[in-house]
Amino acid sequence: MHRSxxxxxxxxxxxxxxxLRQKLIEKIIRxxxxxxxxxxxxxxxxxxxxxxxxxxxxxxHMWDEEKEHLDTMERLCAxxxxxxxxxxxxxxxAAYALGVGTALMGKEGAMACTVAVEELIGKHYNDQIxxxxxxxxxxxxxxxxxxxxxxxxxxxxxxxxxxxDGPKAPLFDALKFAIQTGCKGAIWAAERV
Length: 193
Ligand SMILES: [Fe+2]
Ligand SMILES: [Fe+2]
What we know:
The chain is an all-alpha fold. The protein is built from seven helices and no strands.
């Protein structure tokens, strides 16, 4: 949110800048926690199917990074007293099913899922980084550092999906559209409750 808008909103609603800043931080951490939980469950679902396959170590590597991301978000939730989204249990099940379903399509299907999800999440992290810089880069220095690191790792996952033939999956464009639409719905929900 732009600083002048924050000030205007603050005077019109009677809320202090601190309260608005806390709301912004809560929104960002809640949705990112949901996203990292989803990513952890997707790769868990994929590994349940692809264990022992030629790409198991590639998926395991991304899964290990997602576990660390989830850990990071859990620590941030605790630090800023942000409860997880009420949709967390549903997201967990849906994400696991997405992981299993795409892995059952084979290597290309699994990697297509990574391409679709990581592209969207990378963009979403970028939007949040811009929002925090617009608000106050100094006040958000630590959070910005974390989000930038996670964004970079998600972009590496995206690249892994591309070089491992994700875009060669059957009906790749339709699959990517469907997955990204589902993820956008989840983001919309998690940013609110
Ligand atoms: Fe992640
Ligand atoms: Fe990722």
